[in-house]
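Table 4 source record.
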Amino acid sequence: MSFAAALLLGFLIEAALGWPAALFRRIGHPVTWIGWLIARLEAALNRPADAAAVQHMRGAATVATVLGLCVSATWLVGQLLPGGWIGMVLAAGLAWPFLAPRSLFDHVAAVARPLREGDTAAARAAVAMIVGRDPSALDEAGIARAALESLAENASDGVVAPVFWGLVFGLPGLVGYKAINTLDSMIGHRTQRYESFGMVAARLDDLVNLLPARLTGLLFALASSRIRRSASVMLRDARQHRSPNAGWPEAAMAGALGVRLSGPRIYASRVAEEAWLNPGAPDPQAADLRRGLVLYRRAMFVLVCGIALIALV
């Protein structure tokens, strides 16, 4: 039985259930288990006072250890699964926590609801859970922009990329990708503590997201009522983004919704002067965030159809 069928079932389970809070309270989440391992290795190996070359080597050792353990463990588990439908269902259960179509939707919808009702304070609190910028300086347009950017970027990192690598390499590819992405989110920062230690994690994350990010942008364009506009904005503006990957889904969403995204933002006390995606378009508002969620659902439907086609073939 193709792993694509298991991936499809795991995707549908997460889309229906997310990761239940009761289950999280009882056992946590597999990604938090990976995070625990990363945190222990980082605490043991990261010495910011050491030479950059030494820090690079220790960071690379951290990446190799985490990735090696995750991939080898899931490969071994995969070898122990029975064949046929029973094995497929068990594989789907293992894939389920590493996919996040429902979880991402719920986090962004938690911003959209108070924003639509005019409760800016609650919307700021909700958006602070999904972005790193200072929410206290955000007005309605800033909140909607931050949430849409998070929706677009995490559609790639949290949904499309895991599916992509799962289709290519099976369960080890799915879990291995999530290990790389978690490494980047924890140690891949451009700060004094992580600049050298997390360099390998950040570069590897950029590499494994190259194709999925562009595929996510294509999915947004295909799901849009403005296919040509979305695609043209993506092809024109994506490379203006500070990230080699995030600009593709963000620009496609900006073109599809007819709004501008990215642009200047505040992190702590620092102002980051970023280029606009789809410049000249108006800032997004609460209604545009709701439209973004509708576009996301349509894009996920296109993705599900693609997985189902691959499973059938």
